[in-house]
């Protein structure tokens, strides 16, 4: 199974992030919303918090959250994006503090989705409910 990114399906910032990844990951990731059936199953399977305020990457059966997930994603993007993985060496509490601050304000700053974008058939195959 391909690595799976779980994202907040109601968040404009999260949607923009998914669109950004789709253009740069050469098909490496699949996607599911945290609110959907697969997202909820993965939360339960990996015993993640039900009030999770983070993107989640599940790769080889291991869940990554917050800054670990974000940095893991950049590792598989084209261009210079993998260079951001150098921030892994920054202490996780500091990275997660910045991540949590943005996550806390994302709806306020970027809004929430009123409707979903309908991707083409090839892209749609990478999304799971």
Largest sheet: 5 strands, mixed
CA-CA gap between termini: 15 Å
| Secondary structural class | alpha/beta
> For the largest beta sheet, what order do the strands appear in spatially?
4-3-1-2-5
Number of domains: 1
How many alpha or pi helices? 5
Residue fraction in strands: 5-15%
What is the averaged pLDDT score? 89
Low-confidence stretches: none
Shape: globular
Protein name: Thiol-disulfide oxidoreductase DCC family protein
InterPro entries: DCC1-like, DCC_oxidoreductase
Short characterization:
The chain has 129 residues and is α/β, with parallel strands linked by helices. The protein has five helices and five strands.
Which features does this protein show?
5 strands, 129 residues, alpha/beta, 5-stranded mixed sheet
Question: Could you characterize what this model shows?
Answer:
Helix content is 42%, strand content 14%. The protein is an alpha/beta fold and 129 residues long. It is globular. The mean pLDDT is 89. This is Thiol-disulfide oxidoreductase DCC family protein. It comes from Exiguobacterium antarcticum.
């Amino acid at each position: 199974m391909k690595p799976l990114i779980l994202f907040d399906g109601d968040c404009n910032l999260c949607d923009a992030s998914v669109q950004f990844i789709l253009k740069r990951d050469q098909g490496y990731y699949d996607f599911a919303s945290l609110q959907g059936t697969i997202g909820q199953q993965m939360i339960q399977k990996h015993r993640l918090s039900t009030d999770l305020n983070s993107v989640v990457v599940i790769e080889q059966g291991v869940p990554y959250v917050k800054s670990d997930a974000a940095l893991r994603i950049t590792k598989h993007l084209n261009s210079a994006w993998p260079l951001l993985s150098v921030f892994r060496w920054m202490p996780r509490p500091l990275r997660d503090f910045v991540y949590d601050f943005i996550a806390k304000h994302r709806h306020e700053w970027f809004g929430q989705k009123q409707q979903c974008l309908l991707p083409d058939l090839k892209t749609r195959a990478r999304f799971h409910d």
